[in-house]
């Protein structure tokens, strides 16, 4: 079943273009390729789009396959555990911006016992690959008890969470076997963006040019992920050889990049058993900078144009203390790469909202390569289970 791959995790990392292609099939048409031929690099923006581009009618039609969402709500909560919580943070940022609704992400275990102040005018979206996670299910039931309308984003469609929520958005990412979640994560992020678009449209707060641009970006995304995989796999292996016996690694980002940093550190620590920590750029000075010394590995994310200058300042602070910095940056922040000994520059023309999906790919590859280089069982890390059905 692993085919040509050594491990399920590597197979699932490489299945991302295909998985996203399936989730986005209603936008891209059934024949659209999920995977660029290996080594051919990025195709950029010039391909003819299946629905043509432009008219707001086509855009509205383009989202009709998504669950109908209640518009009479005042806020949106995204609730999940682990990797799915990182996707929830991104989903909340999308809904806040595109649907113009106060939105937040919460850990399911905190939500269910934290007396959340939700009610009939709070939309609660739970995100879960397995659809069986005990805390996420508990949170869903608590939200329903409080009268909130609920939506589940799940990969396993017949799962308990999928059955119990009022509405379901299936991820269609295919079976995920490796304990460390990869293709489900990128699908969850895209699903969050689709829900935000749907809600924004239903509420009439989304300009057609804005939604049109994002939908066009989504259509191109699977090929861009394929190109990222093709280019970065060998580079991340090289970096892993250098970093695999270090003790602590730090992942730093701001805004959406913080969610990606959190996901990168979780992936690395759960399969490599190295200590990794994610933090907001602005928090560096408030404690963690004392741990940044000569040769400490730092992964800096600066993909969001409005925050790139601030992140450059933070990374400079780590550099001047001798950190070894890998940066993942947008094309307009190329200056930041001068600080780094290795950099991943995202392609031109990708909407900042879509960049987390591309930015996480090298971090998945890095985590995989570090664990593999340490001779570990990548698919079944110690002490962890794929589906956490007890609290
Ligand atoms: C990490 C990982 C876990 C899960 C978490 C939630 O790679 O896989 O953190 O994301 O246990 O699981 P689901 O999404 O099945 O609710």
From TrEMBL:
Q: Which GO terms describe its molecular function?
A: carbohydrate derivative binding; glutamine-fructose-6-phosphate transaminase (isomerizing) activity
Recite the UniProt keywords alphabetically.
Aminotransferase, Cytoplasm, Glutamine amidotransferase, Repeat, Transferase
The catalytic activity of this protein is classed by the Enzyme Commission as 2.6.1.16
User: According to the UniProt entry, which residue ranges have a biased composition of type Polar residues?
Assistant: 45-56
Catalytic residues per the record?
A: 386 (for fru-6p isomerization activity)
What processes does the entry annotate via GO biological process terms? carbohydrate metabolic process; fructose 6-phosphate metabolic process; protein N-linked glycosylation; UDP-N-acetylglucosamine metabolic process
Task: Provide the reaction this enzyme catalyses.
Answer: D-fructose 6-phosphate + L-glutamine = D-glucosamine 6-phosphate + L-glutamate
Q: What is its main location?
A: cytoplasm
What general EC class does the enzyme of this chain belong to? transferase
Kindly state one GO CC term assigned in the UniProt record: cytosol
Where are the residues of the annotated region Disordered? 24-56
- Where is this protein localized, as stated in its record? Cytoplasm
Domain annotation SIS: ranges: 66-205, 239-381
Q: What's its job?
A: Catalyzes the first step in hexosamine metabolism, converting fructose-6P into glucosamine-6P using glutamine as a nitrogen source.
Whom does it interact with, and what assembly results?
Answer: Homodimer.
Q: What is this protein called?
A: Glutamine--fructose-6-phosphate aminotransferase [isomerizing]
Organism (species): Limnochorda pilosa
Q: Which residues of the full protein are shown?
A: 245 to 635 of 635
